[in-house]
Amino acid sequence: MFPGEDVKNFLRMAYELLSELPNIIVSEDVCSIVVFGSAARPSDFVPGVSDINVLVLVKRAPKRRVYNLDFMDTRIHVELFTPEELDQMIEKGSLLGFMLRDSVALLDRGCLSMIRSRPRITEYTIKILRRYVLAALGLAIESYYMEMPRKSASQLYHSIRHLIRYLYALSGDAEGFPVSDEELLVRSPEDLRSLFRKLIEMRRREISMDELKEAIEEVIDAIARKLGLKKTGIEALEKLPSKPLMVVACEDSNWLVFHVEVKRGEGLKILKLRGDSVTEIENIFCD
């Protein structure tokens, strides 16, 4: 685990690199560069586990929307928008509007002042947060079977983080929407607080596969309970004849289900696990 000052130094070096983005993305007319997410909050950032998320505002529709860079084994995810596009996203209820409340502007040539919309909670916000809860859970279980425990623990953390935000969003209070881990702990339902605190700590250290499996079971229980779903537990995956290669968590008729890809002879097959039932399906993604 990096000490606090080492995290700040790491982010300082990353910021210096990102300040050079106009020289890297030479085909675009870069107007603003903004770091958001945990990389804007040193207390939440975990080097080697957290990504660095960057918003780049450009004056004209970009020729390319996404750039993925690598910095000292940390992924940098860069997305490009015009100020008008960002305005429309925030008005729609995009989470980006809330994330930008807690951000670091590395460069601004006037584009940020063009953003007029304010973060708001809409049906879209609630829908996307609920979807993110399950998406992160599926990735966590997939990483567990790939024997990548810290990555899996980080994805469990993201799943419960999305769940807390989803539950808070149901109140409609955009002003108090939690962004940082500290805010999430304060606004978390009491029965999720200790689990979220445990996941914050787990993603910062080495953990055993047994400890991770126990955490996965806790997260599945919490998600099923809070979303009002019947539970398909990890024991359903453990009964498979071979390790899942891909795992997608979905909702299906008030059930939390898993779509999994497994080996079949020389080929692959996709299964839906719902409670104790196993059925073969054609598409691994949720309907």
Topology:
Layout: H1 4-18, H2 21-24, E1 30-36, E2 52-58, E3 66-71, E4 74-81, H3 83-92, H4 95-99, E5 104-108, H5 123-145, H6 149-169, H7 181-187, H8 190-202, H9 209-227, H10 234-238, E6 246-252, E7 255-264, E8 267-274, E9 277-281
Parallel strand pairs: 2-4
Antiparallel strand pairs: 1-2, 1-5, 3-4, 6-7, 7-8, 8-9
| Outline | globular
The succession of helices and strands, N to C, reads HHEEEEHHEHHHHHHEEEE
Poorly predicted runs of 5 or more residues: none
Could you tell me the number of beta strands?
A: 9
Structural class by sheet pairing and helices: alpha+beta
- If you compute it from the alpha carbons, what radius of gyration comes out, rounded to the nearest whole angstrom? 20 Å
Distance between the termini: 39 Å
The main pleated sheet reads as:
5 strands, mixed
Q: Number of helical runs?
A: 10
How are the strands of the biggest sheet laid out side by side? 3-4-2-1-5
Give the oligomer, counting copies of the same chain as homo and different chains as hetero.
single chain
Average pLDDT, all residues: 95
Helix content: 40-55%
Name the beta content range: 15-25%
Organism: Ignisphaera aggregans
InterPro entries: NT_sf
Protein name: Polymerase nucleotidyl transferase domain-containing protein
